[in-house]
Hints:
The protein is mainly α. It has helices spanning 5-33, 46-56, 64-88, 104-113. The chain is elongated and about 85 Å long.
Amino acid sequence: MSLSGEQLKALARQGAAQRYQELQAELAALTATFPELARGGGKRRAGTTAATSASNRRRRSMNAAQRKEVSERMTRYWASRRAAKAATGSGAGQKGKGRRRKSAKKAAEKKPSE
């Protein structure tokens, strides 16, 4: 049995109307059980709105002068860090942590060509 487009729409509308009535009845039962829900949701946790608004904020971009100032400040910062490291002697002759050594295979391949 095939139905026309109008018949399908009519059946869909009937099904939607029935489901809507079921949802209305369920909502009425919930608001009778929990009256605070009808007043706007009841108690909220304190941090939820602050966390949501913070995550939705857009970060302002820096203009050229601000970028230059940050660049100069960080250049001074890293220069002082290098000077402090050199003054204490820590890391003298050592490569930074996390750098990989050349594999033995690559080292062996490189020796004959030198």
